[in-house]
Here is the input.
Amino acid sequence: MNFTGDRVSSIRHLLAAAARVYEGRHRLIGPIAETTGLSPEGVELGFGYLERRASDADLGALLAGASEAAHVHVILSANVFVAPLRALALAIAAAPKVTVRPSPRDPWLTRALVGELENRCVEIVDERSAAALDADSFHVYGRDETIALVKAEAHRGTAIWGHGAGLGVVILTQAAEVDAAAMRIALDVVAFDQRGCLSPRLVLVEGNLAQGTRVAEALHRELAALADLVPRGRLDPDEREQARRWTDTVAFAGRTWQGRDHVVGLGPDGEPLTVPPAGRHVHVANVRSLEDARALLHPTARFIVSVGTDDPERVRDSVPDHARLSPLGAMQSPPLDGPVDRRRA
Here is the structure.
């Protein structure tokens, strides 16, 4: 049996199922908006990031990086509602049998994909069911605490692949065209209301304070314009409190630009970065050089999943080796060549 060929075919069937779900997305926009807190416009925007095609080279890389198992059980989180597609593709690449526990808070896309797939080798189950408990590999998405709990409860010898907390970062070189860069960064921020590990929360600007200020002002304008097209969804009380504390902290020593649905903060030159909460909050900082950027990012390096930039060649040595490099405006749509998070690939 050609296992590689069979699994490529199965992933192609999954992508075809995703295309059918996308075409019927109007039936899901309301329920997803209700459970995720995104606005209906935010859900519509998010559906644009649902993978529906992949090159042979990308699928070859995905399969090459898969750790083979007899049965993979997938435990999903609710951060980004299109994430189940890639999670299912990774599981199918690894094993002929896949069980999946959707996020209790956001099960809609997972159920729609599996329903369209009509593949008896992929089954939705409760994580405590007998079908899940005999898995020899777990793919766990969500908080670090969730991953630790699964590891503690798993049978000896069970492989655990965990995808925990992460964030995106933007690094702009002095050569970047500010207005165009700000427009593309804003698109990456607005998608999923910044709740995914690909979403940029930090923007480092090569240059002096005046350059950082220009970027912050341009980003403020672009986020305000996008809010008219894609309003931010609801923030829960904890998120609002986190946002208030972060805004107050940055404003105390730096400067903030506040819009209806966003806050852009500019920290003082040379000060440590303050990672903002999700919900369209962005910390901008200027750095004198790309070497300074690497030093400033060092305390958060292990959390960085994605880096957007105007010049990947210059920036490559300034970011963690595991981070994905993406063009500005494309941080939310990496190729389907493996997990978005390469820290545990």
Observations:
- The chain is about 45% helix and 20% strand.
